[in-house]
Amino acid sequence: MAHPAGSTARQTVKGSSTVITSRENKWLKGFRAALSGERNGDGFVGVEGVRLVEAALGSGLAVEALLVSESGARHLRRVAPVLASSVPLFRTTDKIFASVADTQTPQGIAALVRPPKSTFENLLAGTALMLALVGVQDPGNVGTIIRSAEAFGATGAITCLAGGKGTADPFGPKALRASAGSAMRLPIIHGISPAALMAQLRSSGVKAYAAVAPATSANVSFKKDDAAESSSPLLPPWDIDWKIPVAILIGNEGSGLPADLARAADARVFIPQAAATARVGIESVNAAMAASVLLYEAMRQRNEAGNQHL
Length: 310
Prior knowledge:
Radius of gyration: 22 Å
Strand content: 15-25%
CATH class of the largest domain: Alpha Beta
CATH topology of the largest domain: Alpha/beta knot
Largest sheet: 7 strands, parallel
Helix content: 25-40%
Number of helices: 13
Order of helices and strands: HEHEHEHEHEHEHEHEHEHEEHEHH
Distance between the termini: 63 Å
Structural class: alpha/beta
CATH superfamily of the largest domain: SPOUT methyltransferase, trefoil knot domain
């Protein structure tokens, strides 16, 4: 098989490569499954596109294999500086690559990588600033939250299952793309229960702040009578002390946080909106936007505190 686009790029990559011509090849099947979001028995996930592959290789993660198409071979020059010679390199046609890709317009390069394994202790590094995603089901929201978490200095993220609603896998293909590679660098713990989360926060001295809709609207977080019974104060972001170890609890896009979890938080935090938004039916911002706003306020307060000590 001729590889006109890869002849120059081949010189930039150490080691040999193997050409795949059959759709039934075991490696191709592995890439197909991983790029569709399946986790194989070894725990590897698929990353696709030159920016994500470069981020994965540069993050020092364990890489199982690299796959490039005829046209995608041009990207080898870009990833060569971070590609270990021990990583198997497979080449195939553009048509076969498209049959395993998760994107509509594939860039012709993908990798199988092992996500980092994180512990709760990893998230406590420095002054902890954690995100806990409880039933956030949209992978785009999950990825965006992870990206904001890294951008605004969070120490890590935790995903939880609550009320039968699981949080989308941060290492799924859509979430990975939305995170722009942040999921491969930020410590993440995936799939614990809210009860276990709260126990860990309490034992570690981390304050839990539950993000709720303005005025705790009944259709987003919990009912008005639940709000009245809650012992946790309801505060805007600027009345929260973000300089201490904290965890921000972000709930499901439609139903918000479970009532018992919001009540158990040290405080409930809402994001005030312009008065005009109520008249047009905008009750709250979405999960990813709320997380970003709260993370920014946390970073702002922490930066101010740091500057005061200069």
